[in-house]
Design a protein that fits this description.
Bound molecules: dihydroflavine-adenine dinucleotide
Largest sheet: 8 strands, parallel, barrel
CATH class: Alpha Beta
CATH topology: TIM Barrel
Number of helices: 13
CATH architecture: Alpha-Beta Barrel
Order of helices and strands: HHHHEHEHEHEHEHEHEHEHH
Number of domains: 1
Radius of gyration: 18 Å
Strand content: 5-15%
């Protein structure tokens, strides 16, 4: 119930106005977001890379309804990639891109605009020796996102995508995308979805996650296990062993600020671990989804408001 209300609020401009206006919110946001400007993201990358982790950077923003904002997203990524390359932090690291921030919802031309903005980012990533993954948003965008993935992979075969186990369709998508060269980040799904398209019970989402993991681990692509759930991590390790996978043929991914100890423990055990580092001033939607994932975060948020 609570989680569903938070996910509804994540898309409400009224709730956005109220929550972002409270100064104490910032303190809680800092736990999940590296900072508001590129330099903050780069500083977080330096620290994580220094401790043996890999990163994927998200320049925060989503649901853009204006062409100039979509171009600003593209330019922000281009500036980020250039800064990382100048500091020797680009190689082997990644950017995560939301197509809705690149203009996907801009009417009839939206898909084309998003694809061309994403293409420009992928070209810069390639030149800098970086990777790129397309984040997955709500279910109405999936066909479009996978279509853009297919087209861009013709020029950037290392381009990755995200699949969400909450959705009924995802096992089929995993089968279609378990091929050689494919990079798929499997997550449980962070959006509020109707029961016509998605499992509603957490236990069903978890079981589906394991079924999807089985498909990806048995496939020929690179599974990217995007979860903080220790059970899923153990199952992924055991499926990797069962399928004779070497440690460098798959990776674990976790969000900045969540289970940092486990991130380091896995990396020290020889696994590849990539931390998803969000930065930027448009943190509202991202922050609300993190609150919705865990009621304890909301209690922490409420305490920080009351302690002012
Ligand atoms: P689960 O929700 O069961 O949590 C397991 C445990 O992890 C919890 O008990 C808690 O200890 C810890 N935990 C989880 N979330 C927490 C939080 N917010 N705060 C504190 N602790 C927390 N989704 C999507 O729809 N599209 C996308 O593109 C992405 N991209 C993405 C990238 C990466 C690298 C990750 C790790 C996740 C995403 N997600 C995502 C989010 C994903 O769908 C999902 O909502 C979260 O990862 C939470 O699910 P878990 O698998 O961690 O399990």
């Amino acid at each position: 119930m609570l989680s569903s209300a938070l996910l509804t609020a994540a898309r409400s401009s009224r709730a956005r106005g109220l929550i972002t206006a409270v100064p104490a919110t910032r303190k809680v946001v800092e736990r999940f977001v590296a900072g508001e400007v590129t330099e903050d993201g780069v500083r977080a990358v330096e620290e994580l890379v220094g401790s043996g982790l890999h990163v994927t950077l998200d320049r925060l923003g989503e649901d853009t309804l204006d062409r100039a904002a979509a171009e600003a997203t593209r330019d922000g990524y281009l500036a980020l990639i250039e800064t990382l390359a100048d500091r020797g932090l680009a190689s082997g690291n990644e950017v995560s891109v939301k197509l809705s921030a690149c203009g996907q919802a801009l009417g009839a031309d939206g898909e084309k605009i998003a694809r061309e903005n994403a293409r420009a980012i992928a070209e810069a990533a390639k030149a800098a020796g970086m990777l790129m993954t397309l984040d997955m948003e709500d279910h109405t965008t999936i066909d479009s996102t996978l279509g853009i993935l297919r087209e861009l992979r013709e020029d950037f075969p290392w381009l990755g995508a995200v699949l969400q186990s909450a959705l009924y369709r995802t096992e089929d998508d995993c089968r279609a995308l378990a091929h050689e060269g494919s990079r798929i980040r499997l997550v449980k799904g962070a959006y509020k979805e109707p029961d016509t398209v998605a499992h509603q019970a957490k236990s069903e989402v978890d079981k589906a996650y394991v079924r999807c993991l089985r498909i990806l681990m048995a496939g020929r692509g690179r599974p990217m296990v995007g979860s903080h759930d220790l059970r899923m991590i153990r199952i992924a390790e055991s499926l990797a062993r069962e399928n004779g996978r070497s440690a460098d043929s798959y990776e674990f991914q976790m969000l900045y600020g969540i289970r940092a100890f486990e991130q380091r423990r896995l990396a020290e055990s020889g696994a590849t671990v990539r931390v998803y580092v969000p930065y930027g001033d448009d943190w509202y939607g991202y922050f609300m989804r993190r609150l919705a994932e865990r009621p304890a975060n909301l209690a922490f948020f409420a305490r920080s408001l009351l302690s002012r």
